[in-house]
Write a structure and sequence with these properties.
Elements: E1 3-6, H1 27-36, E2 41-43, H2 54-62, E3 67-75, H3 83-99, E4 106-111, H4 117-121, H5 134-155, E5 159-162, H6 172-181, E6 187-192, H7 193-198, H8 203-210, E7 214-219, H9 224-232, H10 237-242, H11 256-265, E8 271-274, H12 285-298
Helix pairs in contact: 3-5, 8-11
């Protein structure tokens, strides 16, 4: 049975080190509003955003009748000297989720997005010249596998990789390369519809190509007009966010009805996480969360 969750990033609680970080909404309000707008689960958010004591974390989530289904872990995988630090970060998160009773949750591994200026400035318009060479790809893939293996061997927790604009795995071609270089038994794909579209791809084609590799799904819509406005202004990834490149579900360019039909037809039986990435202080997150949940109900979920 497909279940619908949301995540703290929809309330502007992001993993990036932003000047507006002080405007983040507290986790208690976020969890309350996730529950109140009809969702059944949440992701953890950045380390330290929610309690890092397992008992406290379990209490906060379970008292609202929610589930914890994953945690985003960014790592600069292209740097071999960061692999051990990345593994330690993932293990810390996995241990927290495991000890809190969420051993079925995922580590949602990603690049250290927005840490490379060229990739951040050109999000949504990446060219092959901005990508990794073969040696760098090998380092990247080996780091991802090292982290996934450690988490699985120690806690039995699985790892999915989240492609992401402003990181080294953004375009369909880059996702293809990472999938080719990594063990399909060890690393799944977290398919994010909005990031895939912003990165130049068709999410339905990705679903068809990687259905057996897709263990986790993020529903995010994409507004090409907002992307175009940002492109004309030479805006970076954060400029695109500010302009609403990830709009409310059903108001962008992604065919979610076809996506839901394909997921159901191919037997997807896990969580769908709604993510409408915004910057801290932007908009009305609760109203957007309600609108997004209402839209998904029209799709039969």
């Amino acid at each position: 049975m497909i279940k619908i969750a949301n995540a703290p990033c929809s309330w502007g609680a992001l993993e990036f080190d932003l000047e507006k970080k002080s405007e983040e909404i507290g986790f208690e309000q976020v969890l309350d509003e996730i529950k109140e707008t009809g969702y059944l689960g949440t992701e953890l958010g950045d380390w330290g955003y929610m309690p890092t004591d397992p008992a406290l974390l379990k209490n906060e989530i379970s008292q609202r009748g929610l589930e914890l289904l994953g945690a985003f872990v960014p790592v600069a995988l292209v740097k071999a000297d960061q692999h051990e630090n990345g593994k330690a970060s993932a293990m810390r998160v996995a241990e927290l989720m495991y000890n809190a009773g969420y051993g079925d949750a995922f580590i949602v591994l990603a690049d250290d997005n927005a840490s490379i200026l060229e990739r951040t400035q050109n999000a949504g318009r990446i060219t092959p010249e901005m990508g990794l060479d073969r040696k760098q790809w090998q380092v990247f893939a080996e780091g991802a596998e090292k982290i996934a293996r450690a988490v699985k061997d120690t806690f039995g927790i699985r790892t999915v990789f989240h492609h992401h604009c402003a990181g080294y795995v953004e375009t369909p071609e880059e996702i293809d390369t990472l999938m080719e270089l990594t063990d399909p038994e060890l690393i799944g794909l977290c398919l994010d519809m909005g990031h895939y579209a912003f990165g130049g791809g068709d999410p339905i084609k990705a679903l068809e190509k990687y259905r057996d590799r897709i263990w986790h799904v993020h529903f995010k819509d994409y507004d090409p007009k907002a992307a175009q406005r940002s492109r004309k202004a030479q805006g970076d990834y954060f400029d695109a966010l500010k302009r609403g490149v990830f709009c409310e579900l059903g108001k962008g360019d992604i065919d979610f009805k076809a996506i839901v039909d394909l997921l159901c037809r191919t037997g997807y039986d896990d969580w769908i996480v709604v993510e409408q990435d915004i910057l801290p202080g932007m908009g009305n997150p609760k109203a957007c969360a309600k609108s997004n949940r209402d839209y998904i109900i029209t799709l039969g979920l």
